Amino acid sequence: MAVAGLLVFVVLLFEFNRFWTALAIFIGTIFSFTFVILGLWITGSHFDISSFMGAITVLGIVVNNGILLIDFAVRYRQAGKSQIEALLLAGRVRLRPILMTNTTTIAGFLPLALQLGSGGEILQPFAVAVISGLVGSVFLSLIVIPILYQVFERSRQQR
Q: How far apart are the C-alpha atoms of 69 and 98, rounded to whole Å?
């Protein structure tokens, strides 16, 4: 898990060429595990290998959403928009794709989470982890990551 996290952070560093931008996205992805654990606790599921795979799946989706959101914000900044305006425009542009991706993924995992088929009890923790992580990732992708990005960018500009 630590190696996967380190590799994700390195990829973010290469993507943005800025430590603080990569850190903002990476912190947002770490928060996604809180929602995974919360979802498992609420449903009474255990944290096992299948729920661990679900957490890694959520990590990938949150990283993707964060990269695209911040990339759009950086492009708007280069076009002359203020930092807040760029983040708001990026959020407005990325809201629909994030909601569509998360909604379809949640709908696809719902039968597994409800154990509607044979063998569902094996993959139920995986589905619960993905669903709870994705529900929280909407909040993380559209609110927490942009706030962290703005705070880090302001402190960088003040230095």
A: 10
Q: What is the DSSP letter of 117?
A: S
Distance CA 150, CA 21 (A): 9
CA distance 101 to 159: 38
Reported as a single tens digit per residue, the pLDDT across 89-109 is 999 999 999 999 999 999 999
DSSP assigned state of 79: T
Write down the pLDDT at residue 39: 93
* pLDDT at res. 88: 92
Q: Give the count of alpha carbons within 13 A of 104, CB side only.
A: 6
Q: Please give the Cα distance from 42 to 94 (Å, whole number).
A: 30
pTM: 0.86
CA distance readout (Å), 146 to 31, 70, 84, 152, 154? 14, 7, 9, 10, 12
2-158: CATH homologous superfamily? Multidrug efflux transporter AcrB transmembrane domain (1.20.1640.10)
For the chain, give the mean pLDDT.
89
